[in-house]
Amino acid sequence: MEKVNPTRSELLYRKQQIKLAEQGMELLKKKRDALLREFLPIIDETMKLSLKLERATLDAQQALALAKAVEGRNVLTSVGFATKGEVLVDIFGTHVMGVPIPVIRKSTAPVKTELTRGYAITGVSARVDQTASKFEEIIDLMIQSADIETRLRRLGEELQKTNRRVNALENTVIPELAEQVKFIFSSLDERAREDHFRLKKVKKKILERQGKA
Fold it and tell me: DSSP string spanning 23-86?
């Protein structure tokens, strides 16, 4: 326990500190509960999206393997060069329970049509089109995953930080202040008893002197 000056003004100060710490703890608990309400549904959403991405990746790999076997590697390589491009995303910020979170959104659709992939429609089979579509779907899901996983990570970090603060106030700061208040009370009470004892002695001496006079 830190060194405490056992005075009445210090007692009032420590009591005020406890009151403020308790108010702060209650506010942090409310924030923690609100963050938790936001956090838990995002976990479910993240898990569902992860499974969806896993299934989409498996489907795309199977479609690619079949296309290679039927169409040949050279055809797929040629189509791959023809469909080279980029997927643009927009990144901006928002706030959830006061927590700054980047938002990732696709500004161009990753999933294209046969007319926008860059190769001649008559030059490839429906199987190749289907394979391309499945890999474009993976890109679309990856963008969604990046957005939701970023949100999940930021909220999780803030939740941990808030919980640490609550635990620090509840288990360390407030108990220490309570011990300091107890110490000051005990010191003031002991001092009051000593003062009372001294006054009794002084009174007794005065009465004795008056009796002798």
Answer: HHHHHHHHHHHHHHHHHHHHHHHHHHHHHHHHHHHHHHHHHHHHHHHHH-HHHHHHHHHHT---
Tokens of 51: 């499974």
Q: Rounded to an integer, what distance in angstroms lies between the CA atom of residue 131 and that of residue 57?
A: 11
For residue 165, what are the CA distances in angstroms to 112, 155, 158, 160, 161?
Answer: 49, 15, 11, 9, 6
Overall pTM surpassing 0.70 (yes/no): yes
User: What CATH number does the domain containing 34 carry?
Assistant: 1.10.287.3240
Strand partners, 105: 90
Total domains in the chain come to 1
Structural domain range at position 110: 8-207
- pLDDT tens digits along 76-105: 777 776 676 677 888 888 888 788 988 988
Residue 2 resides in a domain: no
